[in-house]
From TrEMBL:
Residues 536-679 form the DOD-type homing endonuclease domain. Residues 744-889 form the Helicase C-terminal domain. It holds the Pfam family LAGLIDADG_3. It comes from Dactylosporangium sucinum. InterPro entries: Helicase_ATP-bd, Helicase_C-like, Hint_dom_sf, Hom_end_hint, Homing_endonucl, INTEIN, Intein_endonuc_central, Intein_N. GO terms for molecular function: ATP binding; endonuclease activity; hydrolase activity. CDD domains: Hint (cd00081), SF2_C_SNF (cd18793). This is DEAD/DEAH box helicase. Signal peptide: none annotated. Gene3D superfamilies: Hedgehog/Intein (Hint) domain, Homing endonucleases, P-loop containing nucleotide triphosphate hydrolases. Residues 124-284 form the Helicase ATP-binding domain. Keywords: Autocatalytic cleavage, Hydrolase, Protein splicing.
Amino acid sequence: MAATYGSFKYVPAEADGDRRTYWAIAAQPHVMTRLKRVFPQLRQDRTRVAMLADTPQSSRDLQWFMDRWPLAPADAVSLARLEARATGHRNTEDTVLRILEGHQPQYGWREPARPARAYQQQAADLVHATGRLLLVDDLGLGKTFTSLLVLRNPAALPALVVTLTALPAQWLGELEKSLPWLRGHIVTGRTPYDLAARMPDNRDPDVLIMSYSKLAGWGDHLAGRVRCVIFDEMQELRRGDRAQKGIAGAAIADEATFRVGLTATPVYNWGDEIHTIVSILDRDALGTREEFSREWCRGLDPSNGKVKVADPAALGTYLRDTGVMLRRTRADVGRELPEVIRIEQPVDTDHERLRQLSGDAAEMARLVLTAADRQVRFQAAGKLDMRIRHATGVAKAPFVAGFVRLLLESEQRVLLLGWHRECFAPGTEVLMYDGSVKNVEDVREGEQVMGPNSTPRTVLSLTKGAGKLYRIVPNKGQPWVCSENHILTVWNGRRYEKVTAREYAEAPARWQRARTLYRAETVTFDGELPALEPWLMGYWLGDGAASLKDFRVASADAEVEAELRGVAARHGLSLSVWAAPGASGASAAKQLALSSGLQGPKNRHVLLRHYRALGLGSAKRIPPSYLTAPVEDRRQLLAGLIDSDGHVYRGNGVGSASYTTKSAALAADVAFLARSLGIAAYIAEKQVTTGYATGTYYSVSISGDLTALPMRVRRKRAAARAGQKNVLRTGFRIEPAGEGEYHGFEVDGDNLFLLGDFTVVHNCYDIWINELRDFYPTLYTGTESPAEKQRSVELFKAGTSRVLMMSLRSGAGLDGLQDYCNVVVFGELDWSPGVHAQAIGRLNRDGQTEPVLAYFMVSDDGSDPPMAEVLDLKRQQADPLVDPDADLATPVNTAGVDRIKALATDVLRRHSQPVAASPGPPPTNGWSQLELVATAADPSI
């Protein structure tokens, strides 16, 4: 009997714990040392027993290891298990090799309506043979049709296709053209419903098609029900079980017979994303995350769990050799296109604007350079980069537009890429330049909205879409809802700064408390018309007879009687005064009536005619013409309101007043009026009991400098406000509002405009639109409706528009641009080189006859230098995984200089603040601080 050096034992999965099976190996010390060298992924417990994951690959390798150092099986089950797993691996390897060498199995299934190319059928055959495949063919090689070939197999039905939000209809069209005998259905709800009831024949569909946004709600329902799952653009699941859609996708894949992933860019960021993607398709292929890290990676970052692959090319070769991943280039299949020419184009930056928009970057820069706590440095670095990245985009935008204008002297069309725009939830009120208020969804192109300096902002274009929303809740005032990328304009105690809703929501509480929203100062309106006796209008709205049978008001104040005598004299009227019914004493209310002394059709009562013409006899509202009257008239109007139903506070409340009414509409008018004068106003509903009855009243709280209001009643005249607090600024909190519809528009000028409550807001900078208006730029940003997107594309193809402005991550599935354009300009950079590759693919497709020129606009200031370096680091991780011949000038082990510290130092220099010494060396574990910043600042990770 041959000598043995130890033993091995099969360890089945735990019923209620770890679902994986293992090999438990105990051997002599020198053999254990060899074992660890051969299997770097294994772990060893305190009993000196090594645990090796039981996968087909590891089982075969263990059998090979035992040829040199024999191990005794602990029992017959262990021996049989090892033989079966190793034999299965050999058979699969042989099958994969035969298919890759050109063997085409004959299945006898129905042929597709369109003939398949040999390389497409080869990929489908691999899926049938192994049950899984990550297909990473070049863009434009027909991955969609290739995956549909798998569905020729009856054992693959019913099937599920998961794709990007804009593509379900395109997938359904491909299914109907390729496999017309199969019945498809696009899932329309986020929660399960009766699928058969939605089909014409009342039978469940053969193929379900849904977007990733709906996957989480359907995960439990579909797990075990679909036999094949196809993940289109599978990099969407790169976060794995850190996202609900990743959990749902893995649950469905675990129970499916066939699993297919499609993407030309499986790695968007760092190389370890490949483990997440592959493990959804095949849990055994790369082992657990810990095993994968020990075998293939280096430099675990404990703050976020990200790791870098030590040798991406070797990992890619392993995945291809085992049939887990398949990659064919255009050259491999004889469908080459002209080479893409990538050009890094230096571009100027408005340094002063960069400084202004950087906000409190200096504070974050100091934390990056001086904070002793590593996590504090990490978070500050991420926020610094996010702030500077936005500011950099704005500061270089005019120069990017200038470069595009130069290109258009020799090029017919240019595809210009940047970040998409932010919007507001439906129902958000916007102040128009004429003083009216419209819901954001009702604003139309060409209309004018009000700017904070009382000048108009013209609406250049409209947009709408759906996505993540946040609710902005002011400490004083009404809440409003915006998209996560909406730019909030806030006051930080020293200057105004701009920050996205998501950035604010993710900021520390202390940082948030130091920021306030702000409202506009006194606003003047276009086409102002003088109001007729505005003080009297205000007083009548409070204490006047609503019927307008005559013109009467009630008051116990001598100042009011004196004012009405003056009105009577100015308009040829007479004043009658009598005691109100039941009134007695010096402070008793009086009835005061203005009359002309004429009756019938010849009535010349100017006030009655005016009020009736304004429609005030049916309901008390401030007429629109009064709300937009000259500033002094509006002050008179507000003074009259306060003299009637208002109360002016003294003592601790000096500088504030309130107005109470039973009319919600009138309360809203009063608040609008006050805000238009630069006075803070907030509405509160309250229950008031008078006698035995309780009713709803609305109280408008007014605060600010009220000394400019000419109240007539002496006891209601405002004293000077002692405090220096600016009442137009208010703290606020932000809270998630789920996902939903949003609307927005682009304006000219400084991109600032007012909401209906006079809050100053910012719509995404669209300097490009202004600078390139001569070329009729059109938009495809991912937030327009399908019809609007199609219109933009058609105008671009027709040559009416020579600039198509597209969001960096929009346009999935868009085809046809390559017939009209070969120039793409990256006005802004994305964190992922994969996004850049996909964007270039909008032009570098079948039908392109010219080399695609890709210009990357890179500034030497702001965020561009460190972003460019991060992109290079990520490219070193991603490219060799899919392309063993990738040309990388810099080895992956070279992290480069710590540019984020250089960026922080430069920020402090621009703010003329001293640069303190760093508290210590940069983070270890193989990660530079620049790379750590990338994982913090990149929303796609």
